[in-house]
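Please, structure for the following, as tokens.
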Amino acid sequence: MSTSTTVILIVNITIAALLAVGLTPLFVWWERRISGFIQDRSGPNRCNIGPLRLGGLIQSFADMLKLVFKEDFVAKHIKHTFLFTIAPGIVFLCSFLTFAMIPFADELIIDGKSHIMQAIPADFGMLWFLAFAGLSIYGIILGGFSSESKYGLLGSIRAAAQVVSYEAPMVLALMSMVICYGSIHLTDIVNAQAGTYLGVIPMWGIFIQPLAAIIFIICSFAETNRAPFDIAEGESEIVAGYHTEYSAMRFGLFQVGEYAAMSASCAIIVTLFFGGYHIPWADTAFIQSNMNYVMIAIMILLPLGVWSFTKWMKKNNKAIGEDLSRVKETRILTIAFWSIAIIIVALMAYFLITGIDANGVNIMTAVIQIGTFLVKFFMMAFVYIWVRWTVLRFRYDQLQMLGWKVLIPLSLLNIVVTATIIVVLGS
């Protein structure tokens, strides 16, 4: 294995690990702050390390440390301790591995050799995603069963029924996408979304298959056991469902697995329906042939974005009486953001002056596409959090009716219509 191949593989694995697991404290903080905003309250903002509060982000790290040092209590009535122990690990591992096939950028060519920009450079594509997304339910079932608790058992039964109800329409929605694109390889699917209709509308999956997109997104919410489909936990009905008997980091692994599943769902939705790593109206060839103009655009837009964000921070973090901690923190963060922006702009100015070779253009294109993917990824994660704190939980019977009587018939109809159109058009 060459040095470039090793470096690219390490970069891809690092990105996948950060997005799938490393962002959990950030997502916990983000969810709390957004819920506070929706409910007209502040959310966490007091926990600090010296002058730093990071807008409440320190609270997430404090909670994580609390789980690490809590007593890992196992009730005496639990007999299947092995199953009880491995259940959170199964959920976590399957949710984490789901991310392994997500492409972060187009194939990167270094010295004439092509490298796939995903954690595991294989062509399983959607099959890998479906396999591990479905396997994670075994951890929930084992956790509820081995808890020897009626609440845990009810939660695992609900989760099993839910995954049966929503796995079918999800797969059928993906079949419509396979019919359209003729491939299960996610990089091929993203590259097929690079063009436009009438020179204006991006050829994203959501415009080609709007019904499949709606069905898939709904099923993704159900697959990740997030509200309004969190009946497996249902704290108002069954305490906490399948993880009622868990504590410390076993409970923490369930929570990390939930956020890892959410991250994987966000990534696959962006990849299939929102153009993946492609900038709208700018495919890989366009970026490579107009690299200087693209870098100039970034050099203009990045400082504008930092300026507007830091201005928003100052507006929302004013001093309260004699307490100047929020003002001091805002100054520290402003300096940090501007420092990063200046370094990036300076590097791009250097590249513009000195020029970059073919390998440099390819690497810069990959970096820009990774940034594009991350922007879309975080926007989709915001939608997940937004929906959780906006839509009420479905009743169990409503959830089953929606899956079996609405989504499955619609997904079957969509396959028939899609196949008919493909055959008639001969494409």
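The chain has one domain: 3-38+56-278+356-425. The beta strands are 108-110, 113-115, 196-197, 201-202.
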